[in-house]
Amino acid sequence: MKIEIKNISKKFGNLVANSEINISINNGIHALLGENGAGKSTLVKIISGQIAPDNGEILIDREKLILGSPIESINSGVGLLNQDPLDFGNLSVLETFLVGIKDANPYRNLKQTKENILRIFQKYKINIDFSQKTKNLSIGERQQVELLRLLYNGAKLIILDEPTSAFSLEQKKMMFETLRSLTKEGIIIIFVSHKLDEIIELCDTATILKSGSVIHSISKPFDSQDIIEKMFENTSSKIKRDKTFTNENNFTILVSGKDFLGRNTEDIEHRFSYGSVIGIAGLQGSSNDSYIKNFFTNEFSKTKLVLDSKVTIPKKTYYYMPSDRIEKGLFRDLNVLEHFGLFKSSETRFLNWNKIKNISSKKIKKFNIRANFSNEVSELSGGNQQRLMLSLMPENQSILLLEQPTRGLDFNSAENIWEMILSRKSKDIAIFFSSTDIDEIWEYSDIVISVSGKSIVNINYKKELTKDKVINYVSGIV
Amino acid sequence: MLFENTIVTVISLSTPLIIAVIGETISEKSGVINLSAEGTIMISALSGFAFGYITDFAIIGFLAGMLTGSIIAAFISYCDIKLRMDQIAVGFVLTILCIDLSNYLGQDYVRINGPMVTKFAIPFISKIPILGNVFFNHSLITYFSILLIPISWFFLNKTNLGLSIRASGENPLAASSRGINVKKMRMFGTIIGGALLGLAGASFSLYTKYGWSESHTANYGWIILAIVIFGGWNPFRAAAGAYGFGLLQVLAIKAQTVTLALSQILPLLPFPIMIFILIFIQYINRSERNKFPKFLISILGGNQPEALGRKLPEDVK
Amino acid sequence: MNKNIQLIQINFIRLVLTLAIIFFVLTLFGTSPISIFDSIIYGSMGSYSKFIRTLIVWAPISLASVALIYTFSAGMWNIGIEGQIIMGAVGATFVARSFFGDTIISPYVQILFALGFGGFWGLICGVLKVKGNVHEIFSGLGLDFVASGIVIYLIIGPWKREGIASTSGTDVFDKASWIPTIGQNEFPLLLILIIFVIYIFSFFIFKYTSFGLRLKATGVNEDAAERFYFSSGKYILLSFFIAGAIAGLAGFSQASGAYHKLVPSISGGFGFLSILIVLICSRNIFFTLIISFLFSALIVGGSQLQIKLGLDHSLIGIIQALFVLSWLILEKLKLEKILLSKIIRSNE
Fold first, then answer.
1. In terms of residue numbers, what domain contains B174?
2. Would the CB atoms of B260 and C156 count as touching at under 8 Å?
């Protein structure tokens, strides 16, 4: 078994997602590493046939793979295990297993097929009742079923795209054992993950991607510090922003009861001063975004903010900005002016459009939004959408909850957004933001909360941390 | 005797309803609500009767009805998949269009006689006392409707094609990533379902509600939409619902001599029942399942296809 | 501005194409489109009394259409509109049959009851959607039939005509309960006033109130509503209540303006027709007013087709549904844009 990826390139508009990628894997478990936006998921999609590359070819056992077709990839032995189980909750486990099965007609000899499936379950010591509905299984079990299904269908190359984020420790152990035994049978595994500890434990070889290109190919034994340095080599110019800023008022974050997995943890209190910028660091697929959202919706845990004055914080003080701008943050069919109207709608029953126009044109200017009143927001660029969301922040004191505020933006737009956010430092109670870009966290935060997987690993002032420490925390190395 | 006759009447009266609810169930299992059922059944009733009349062969009428139903379904499928229009909007407009179209085109066929479907007693077994008369002394289309129940169940639950259709209606993205041609499956489910709706229409005008008149099959299409939900997207339960409705109709006819009000209102009973079923389905989906006795869930619960009524995701090839 | 002109051009081309399709189909039927439209125009507006008849049909259709704008704005398919019209008519009949029936205030009390009954019926749909998560199409359809069941029960039960129980309707209301008219030709001034009040009110709601804007936002993105500090559920409920109430007025117009009694098919299918109208007006209140008038003229003019041309009136329904279907499909095909750019290019 051998897989050769040759000169794969893919552009989305001006964005180079993959550029001249060459990887060759002969056996074992191969890790695909890289920061957010390095091009890993594009490469995975190309191998599994979901998108076609602009250039290049992939050879599996010297046979050329027909690119851009999921069925071709499946038939050539490529199996993809998604981050979230991509299966059928309403169907029984057996039926879920049978959808797209290699057997020409599994129902013709259902008894035999069932026995074959049972054999593969027994082989990997997985014990699941076939007749129950798939949605009654845990996420981990669903992923295991999916993995077995790929094997049953004759996958020779299995790609795991951050599969362990929802696993319990027990399930992870089992999964890793299974994976190792698979390599002995000659199956190649490509493991996409951010968690260095997992990679070091599991993988034999690794490719590090950055900005769409392969920058390093490494193999066992791994040195975690070495990988981190290679992954996070500085690209952005370092701007000193250590403007000292003090405020005598304090607020408390009460991390209470349970983490996002529902495990009991100790109640912890953290006191910080008003105006702090709190960066929530986490790798892609971690819960750092949920942590931010939770202050607004309280849907995951009881973690909350308390002011020293003990005044309850009214809901209107929170301003939550989701990372999915167009799907969750804005209203696709409404125009720019109507968004400002909506912003005003909590204050008045009647809308005075002249007044709203005045306010909007001031805000459009101040926030440098390149759009007309009558533009629907879906016509705006990402940067302009983000600036529009920022311009809709409450004017008085507030708690900003910004989910990946610069996601998908170019360097200049991101700088621009940050200027706007930081200008509110003296006014706001707190500015929370999440990011998967450690440089961004390091550059703008006063306090860093490090999240790995679903747990908070560390909360501390930046001055008592180093960037490497944060990287270690989010990579799961404590 | 009275009881026996009632069952015979219910079975034969429910023939088109059985065919239609199973058609709609197949369509919805693939993810498409064919909201045009009311219009499809009506215009197929006309085309079935008209072609039967012209050719003097009932079988040609049934085929014409099926063809009409599949053409309408194919149109919905085209709008749904190729034009990415709202299924509900297209189905609704087609309902109105087909009703008026059938009334306009059907003017020449009002209250005339065409070919009739006759009873076909199955030799020997129809002689079995009571049972023979109840089950084996019907028209061919009725036998077909009875056979359709297990066949459609088998097709959906025990064949590869059926599984692919259901998978497409549950999670199109997952199905497509496993190499299933979701668009084709969805189109197939919709068209098969439409053909059965059309056959149901023809069985009204050629058999249970013989002939053609203005708005000949009024409201039956809406009723079958309700029965499909009552059936929890399961052919056997849907059929039970259809027979239940047939019984209501028979009771309504009998009640006519006693009180007019009851006879008018009984046929409307499926609608409030449908609403209660829907509330119940949502309720058990949200709360702890084991709070309810199992038999209650199996009678009243239902497996609503998860992608029912939604547009296909853009990523589906 | 440029955008608006382009929009008008596109809509105009679409209109021409749509009419071409209708003409084609009518010709296919072996009829003459010109004489059909001629007869429709004459039949609906050829004389003052014909025009009045058109207004009586226009009243419930225009009201039901504007009612649907509320629910469509909130992203809801209000198929329950038929039931809401029916219940409005029941409310009006209840008043007409009460001790108010022979007093001069009867129509005004009827208005209140029609609003209430219709609004209540709409609200059931809303509650089932928001609290029960029941799809509004199925609950709406169910409630339509429940409403018509109630009417049939009332007509052959408690409200039956003296001596006989038949499905031909209740006794005719006392004259005092009829919607007041003016002059010999019975110009329905009150009805027209109601229509204009509701339309101006709705225009104002959607243009100048937070409520209207939030309603629209709810329909676009239920999830984002919370970020702007309002709950989409509340707005869905309100949209169903208001839509039901206005549809109730349509029922009032049918019972006390058109039939002067309660009949089994009191809604006349105008609720479903209004859904067709709103589908092509994409929530534009002004368009809705005009299209609902044109569709009403088609209905009234179409009733003459049988006498004048020997054609069945169902042809009108075909024209209406075909118009909407062609319009919706052309909208998706975006043919007009291509045509327009070709026209512009050839001019350059």
1. 2-300
2. yes
